[in-house]
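Thread amino acids onto this structure.
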């Protein structure tokens, strides 16, 4: 497992684990980041990521991306 921030852009990944406080995990789940769902890093700019999850694109800062393990 590695954090989403280290994933290769354009390569499909599967979410294995989400770390952090309950509020953070709940917020990510509301955005569609749930365990066993597919995710793909679209681009990375200045450490911030644009990811595609469940047919939508979401911007994440590096801190949030480090909480998502793929």
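Threaded sequence (70 positions):
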């Amino acid at each position: 497992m590695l954090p989403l921030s280290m994933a290769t852009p354009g390569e499909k990944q599967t979410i294995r684990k989400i770390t952090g406080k309950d509020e953070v995990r709940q917020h990510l789940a509301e955005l569609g980041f749930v365990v066993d769902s597919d995710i793909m890093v679209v681009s990375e700019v200045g450490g911030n990521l644009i990811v595609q999850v469940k047919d939508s694109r979401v911007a994440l800062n590096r801190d949030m991306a480090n909480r998502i393990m793929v």
